[in-house]
Design brief:
about 350 residues, alpha/beta, 10-stranded mixed sheet, two-stranded antiparallel ribbon, globular
Length: about 350
């Protein structure tokens, strides 16, 4: 890479089960104000803006154009959008900054899952000819993956329960998390997954600011430098995949440089406890690595923003000196279909 790019600021909303009293714009506005305030930048100072969201959640076409009212499109801005998690919007913004066309970028993402049936909405990600007509929902497919892990001897229900309990306990220190502290494991939602193995449904938003080179040092006392960033995809057909493994995550991590030196922190976008098992194996994470100190997606999972939050949480730990080299992961699609890995580092202390 010819330019050094860093995450210099991160902000997120308080994630809630419902935000009936707020529109997407009203939910996003405080987050945008906060992330800009952390750097002292104004909207006019941003060289590139990129967002991630889903029209399926909003229930209208080109819904992202409404949130531009919150960003402010005057004076005219350079702007783009991805119909994906905000982590993939960050990838586009990172690529833009690498070209030298901009020195700063604002990346934001949001999702309101509460108005409809999220499990039904997510079936629209499936193959439209073979899988989607059968309407297997996201929890049922995750349960299929979890059962494959149990059958292979990679985990058991007690180990899955421990992942959920640890995540919610860690979220106690996260004021933005939707679920915090002891949460009952609950009954089977779809066997072998219980309620405690599954993410909460909720609404939320997040934003980060990227900056290049000396500009990053001006805006942040300890920038979180992006040492590597890559994303890969599994075959669309679930029947063509080994659900107990994630080759795309492993390849993305290798291309991002994650295996060159150990990381001390990993923020994994694992909406289901069983998926953390898959990701730990693919990313070669030992017990010495702190995994999801924020509570992860089991504590708050705003669809289309949860992956960006993983990058933001990892960067924030570097900003405050709690981490020196962190890995952040984001996913999209059923059973970890698409995976992005970012490696972040702080300057030596």
């Amino acid at each position: 890479m010819t330019r050094r790019i860093a995450v210099v600021a991160f902000a997120q909303s308080d994630h809630r089960r419902t935000t009936d009293d707020l529109s997407e714009v009203e939910m996003l506005m405080p987050v945008l104000h906060e992330v800009l305030a952390r750097t002292g930048l104004r909207t006019a100072d941003i060289g590139f803006t990129c967002s991630g969201s889903s029209d399926y959640l909003a229930g209208r076409a080109f819904s992202f154009t409404m949130t531009l009212d919150g960003v402010g499109a005057w004076p005219p801005i350079s702007e783009s959008h991805v119909e994906m998690d905000g982590a993939f919007a960050l990838y586009e913004a990172w690529s833009k900054l690498l070209t030298g066309d901009a020195d700063t970028a604002l990346v934001y993402a949001y999702g309101k899952s509460s108005p409809g049936s999220l499990r039904d909405v997510l079936t629209r990600q499936l193959d439209p000819y073979y899988l989607a007509p059968l309407w297997p929902d996201s929890v049922a497919l995750a349960a299929l993956q979890a059962q494959a892990l149990l059958d292979a001897g990679d985990t058991d229900e007690h180990a899955l329960a421990a992942i959920g309990a640890r995540s919610r306990a860690d979220a106690t220190a996260n004021p933005h998390a939707q679920l915090r502290g002891p949460v009952p494991r609950g009954d089977h939602l779809v066997r072998p997954l219980r309620t405690g193995d599954c993410p909460p449904i909720g609404d939320g938003a997040a934003a980060v600011i990227l900056a290049a080179g000396d500009r990053a040092r001006q805006l942040c006392a300890r920038p979180a430098w992006i040492r590597g960033l890559d994303h890969r995809i599994e075959p669309h057909s679930l029947g063509a995949r080994d659900l107990t493994d994630s080759p795309s995550t492993r390849l993305a991590a290798e291309r991002a440089g994650a295996f060159e030196r150990p990381v001390d922190t990993a923020e994994l976008h694992a909406p289901f406890s069983s998926q953390e098992v898959v990701l730990r194996k693919a990313l070669r994470l030992g017990e010495e690595v702190v995994v999801n100190p924020s509570g992860g997606a089991l504590a708050a999972n705003p669809v289309m923003a949860a992956g960006l939050i993983r990058i933001g949480e990892a960067a924030a730990r570097i900003h405050r000196g709690a981490s020196d080299r962190a890995l952040a992961h984001a996913t999209s699609g059923p059973c970890l279909q698409q995976n992005l890995v970012a490696v972040l580092e702080g300057d030596p202390r």
